[in-house]
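User: structure tokens for this one?
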Amino acid sequence: MPRNIWSGAISFGLVTVPISVASATEDHSIRFHQYHLEDMGRVRVRKYCEIEDREVDQGEIGKGYQLTKEQVIPISDEELRDLPLPTAKAIEIVAFVPLDSVDPSSGARSR
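Assistant:
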């Protein structure tokens, strides 16, 4: 079942239509893992804290913006969600084209 990859709204004039965009393709690619050639042990990526010299869990990891070499400003997921980005979830329609100018064979086919 396809999952939504984007949701938002299409606005034109005073009309706003909520939409969800779903992926129209399926991923059939082959995925490989990395293995140590000597003993075929699985090689994994580990999250490591340089200051404490230890491995850290995913729950201990956050986001931050490096302001200077010594100063990092922490940023939470809530702060990122609350950013006022008017275009992040809206598509503005500025014009429509006449129907006879659209080639029906180049677009999606109806079933």
